[in-house]
């Protein structure tokens, strides 16, 4: 196993970036990714760090777009309500809440799988992200 400059294995640091993304939000994985990009020379580790943040951003974007639909319905409800017409959309809201929870579950499972695979310095191919990484990372 290759060691990083801080003395731990590259696989452990890669898994750590995934798991901190799962448990702590964005700040720590982004800081760790910047560290890896500036100081580490291991190509697999650099790619893994960027992939971890990319997976988090991809699922946040999906969640953002799904949440736009209930917001749009809320705008319509407010607009129609000004004319005295009642428009209820709570069942549609429940549907979108369920979709967001399903997306979060898929994100958590994917990050767990990627984190455990990172221990062995391997990864899971995700077409959208891996194609972009291949295109823009050297």
Task: Give me a quick take on this structure.
The protein is mainly α and 138 residues long. 78% of the residues lie in helices and 0% in strands.
Structure description:
- With 138 residues, the protein is mainly alpha-helical.
- It has helices at residues 10-24, 27-39, 43-81, 90-119, 127-136.
What series of H and E elements makes up the topology?
HHHHH
| Shape assignment | elongated
Number of strands: 0
In which range does the helix fraction lie? over 70%
**What profile does the largest beta sheet have?**
none
List keywords for this structure.
mainly alpha, 138 residues, 5 helices, elongated
Helix-strand layout with pairing:
Blueprint: H1 10-24, H2 27-39, H3 43-81, H4 90-119, H5 127-136
Helix pairs in contact: 1-2, 1-3, 1-4, 2-3, 3-4
